[in-house]
Amino acid sequence: MSFIDRLSRYNPAPYPILPGDFYVSPSGSDGADGSFEHPFATVERAVLAVRAVKAARRGVTVCVRAGEYRTDGIALAEEDSGSAECPIVYRAYGDGEVILNGGVTLDSDGFKPVSGAAKERLRGEAKERVVTFDLARCGLGPADWGSVCPVGAFGTEDKYDAHRPGENCELFVNGRRMALARYPSEGFLRLAAVADVGDCFEFPEQNYDYSWNDRRNHRGGRYIMDKETAARLKTWKSLDGVWAYGYFYHDWADSSTPVAGFDLEHRAFLPAYVSRYGAKKDALYRFFNVLDELTEPGEWYLDRENGILYLYPPVPLAQARVELTVTRRSVIQAENVNHVTFEGFTLKGTRGDAVTLRGDDNALRRLTVTGVMGNAVEVEGRRNLVTECDISHTGRGGIHLKGGDRETLSPGGNRADNNLVHDWAEVYMTYNPGIRLSGVGNACSHNELYNAPHSAIIYSGNDHVVEYNVVHDVVLHSSDAGAIYSGGDWTGQGSAVRYNCLWNAGGGEFRPDGIYFDDMLSGQSAYGNLIINVKKNGFLIGGGRDNTVTNNVVVNCGAGIKYDDRGRDAFVGDGWARAAVINYETGVMWRRLRQVPYRSDIWAARYPALSRVSLDFSDPDNPDFPVNPAGSVVKDNIVIYGKNDATVIRPDVARFSDVSQNALFETEEAAGFIPGEYILKDDAPALKDAPEFKNLPIGKMGRY
Predict the structure, then answer these.
(1) Would you say the pTM of this structure is higher than 0.70?
(2) Domain that holds residue 658
(3) Secondary structure, 3-state, 274-331
């Protein structure tokens, strides 16, 4: 077994059967007393029972028996809180899977062969294999499914008066997300040309129109298709209701738009919503919500006027569980709730987030979250714990922890620990990480994250800890991104990225970074990390200051460690980040500096180097002038570079910071690693070049 196989090991113990104070069962009644013999029928009823008795108890546990519970959202309020003396626990009983489902199951008997005009719009085998379902059979109407809503993390839909906010209903078969009928069915098209970028915020790149933010209903533009695509669209029986989704300029910014019109003779389509960053030749895009392109198993379409659902089944319907997401509420929503635990449930079927939790001292334990449009878990407060959860197939991200106060630097103390997060960001494909930390003093540890188009872990704020995580096969569809990422803030100091194992970042044409401190991010520490097979840079330090990168092992990356001087290059030269730093009043870096009390006693004690920054624009060579990549330490790292670059360090980085004692070798054997491991032998040659290097705690990385 290789060390990577060992890092991915995890064998949870069977879920225990434990007694409770109240019981819930699919065969129960909400008119019963909630005893084991006479259980309630719903968790909602159990919440009311707990509210009535908790004052007289030292703790209350609700046990939910195996089965599926249809819910439009279980809501807890402040009066449903426990206390340190009387914690409240909602727990799966342990006698089988307990499913809380916000969706609707479509029975297989309701599916009929496609017929009539719709059948004539289909192609090839789809004519005989596509089936239909009348949603009225489930008592659903237009208010339940709604209109098509935009997707993508960088959409501009909120700038248009005609836009109606919302989230799309979705279809799942055996837990797998079905694709709204699209062209092409796999992959993307490329724009042949852009005749008109529209009224966008940024174009050309790094040229900003700040007045754009104050205007509405921007002109969408005119994009040109290739000949083959235009010819394909001419075969469609209808061009109504078509949408386009893509990365219209940057591969880190996805968005979508209704198509306002087509000019097929000139191979053009007109986006109704402008792309924020314009558009360019060869940008990736595709069309969706097209009945004529219901061509492959796993695709579906909804006639929203008549409530008829069309599905090309990926498996025989007799073997299929077909579910439509309906509710827009979180499956569990707890507002201003303290000392409550949810444990052992499977959550699914919402167009929103699976769990929204605000409060202190709560826990989410051993939850399985799958098949939701939003995030799996949104937590805000202090000392909350998300642990041993299995999260997959979300439309957005995984776990978001928010807490702490930047004014006082008081920590949130929230932790995501020992979770498995995979196959996320299936709809909103950029900047929806598996784990996000916001605020001050939160942590993610011992998690495993894999298989996603963009970043695995993103954090912002101060004093976070990212440690002992295993991250692999991520950032599969972006180049300007990092598997572990934060950026754009001199004041976002104090975070530590340590003892993580990261391998295989990037896919196909996409070449991302491993650990990425973007756009002058400062005051970070990264040590004890193992980074393997990252297509671009193992580390990319984007011009920041007071960063410490030590005792890491970087293997077979495009460049092992790259540290640029983008801030200084923009200020004293004509670098691309000029707008961020050249003007104290308008530059985003200066604005973020002014937003925090960085010279206050609390901040100065925590980040003394930040408190000394110079605001003297006439002396850009002062090491304390914040555009300079000063005060950093990059040493005692081991880089195995093979045929790639070992390090790429800009001269001004070497001038203002300490880059030394790094061991650079072409092969692992030459460095002195034990074969098949990333542990150095006692007499390893690498220790002569990096004498303070300590072997990494590989056995402690990953889930436990």
Answers:
(1) yes
(2) 475-704
(3) CCCCCCCCCCEEEEECCHHHCCCCCEEEEECCCCEEEECCCCCHHHCCEEEECCCCCC
